[in-house]
């Protein structure tokens, strides 16, 4: 049981380049989400998904796209990277049960630098 | 929308002493969860403690305990017998109890240093 995995761990991009951050979980969790962590800002929700084929925007969605074709995977796409997207990105997953507590499991994070 | 405020950016404590980290939040919800997460230099997010808003009793996990004041919307974390391994960034977080999703709203975090 690998939990939540993220690849790559580190990435450097040039402005305007595109890339996909990968996130996978092997716990059959319905809910998956992406957060970004910036100094002095805490973690902020980018996009989330409550199941395959269902995605929605979080607090800071601009500049990012997501899709959820399988339960296991939830990739985050940067179509045209900007220096403002320099951040540490975390993927998280949990069961999605209405009204009950479901612990969120976090991946190890991806540190992205956009030059 | 919910907001979580951690007003102290940094704190320092001597090893073996007790330290309290503060957190306030704002919400119109009545049913929710509150959390403290620890992020050591490894960057991994670790759940420290959880409090259900409908429970009056404060949660405790070994050396970690909370002081939950629902009316005041305050949720502080007390670390007893501080250890060097407690050095980390700590985040307070909020989650609504209703609905199918599990969105977390985080505070900005506080950096805790434990001095030997």
Strand content bin of chain B: over 45%
Compute the number of helices of chain B. Answer: 0
The tally of beta strands of chain B, per DSSP, is 12
In N-to-C order, the SSE pattern of chain B is: EEEEEEEEEEEE
Topology order of chain A in helix (H) and strand (E) letters: EEEEEEEEEEE
Instruction: Tell me the span between the first and last alpha carbons of chain A.
Output: 36 Å
Report low-confidence residues of chain A grouped into runs of 5 or more.
Answer: none
N→C terminal distance of chain B: 41 Å
Number of strands of chain A: 11
Helical content band of chain A? under 10%
Outline of chain A: globular
Estimate the global geometry of chain B from the Cα principal axes: globular
Helical fraction of chain B equals under 10%
Which spans of chain B of ≥5 residues are poorly predicted at pLDDT below 50? none
Largest sheet of chain A: 7 strands, mixed
In percent terms, what proportion of residues of chain A is strand? over 45%
Keywords summarizing the entry:
heterodimer, A: 115 residues, mainly beta, seven-stranded mixed beta sheet, four-stranded antiparallel beta sheet, globular, B: 116 residues, six-stranded mixed beta sheet, 12 strands, 52% strand
């Amino acid at each position: 049981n690998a939990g939540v995995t993220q690849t790559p761990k580190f990435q450097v991009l040039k402005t305007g380049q595109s890339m996909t951050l990968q996130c996978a979980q092997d716990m059959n969790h319905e809910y998956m989400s992406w957060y970004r962590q910036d100094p002095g800002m805490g973690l902020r929700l980018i996009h989330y998904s409550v199941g395959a084929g269902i995605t929605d925007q979080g607090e800071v969605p601009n500049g990012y796209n997501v899709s959820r074709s399988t339960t296991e995977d939830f990739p985050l796409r940067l179509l045209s990277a900007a220096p403002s997207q320099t951040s540490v990105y975390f993927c998280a997953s949990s069961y999605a049960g209405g009204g009950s507590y479901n612990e969120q499991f976090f991946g190890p994070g991806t540190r992205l630098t956009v030059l | 929308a919910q907001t979580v405020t951690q007003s102290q950016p940094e704190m320092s404590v001597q090893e073996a002493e007790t330290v309290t980290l503060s957190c306030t939040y704002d919400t119109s919800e009545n049913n929710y969860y509150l959390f403290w997460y620890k992020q050591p230099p490894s960057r991994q997010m670790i759940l420290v403690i959880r409090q259900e808003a409908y429970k009056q009793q404060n949660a405790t996990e070994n050396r970690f305990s909370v002081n939950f004041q629902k009316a005041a919307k305050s949720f502080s974390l007390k670390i007893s017998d501080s250890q060097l391994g407690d050095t980390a960034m700590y985040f307070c977080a909020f989650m609504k109890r209703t609905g199918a999703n599990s969105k977390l709203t985080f505070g900005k975090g506080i950096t805790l240093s434990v001095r030997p």
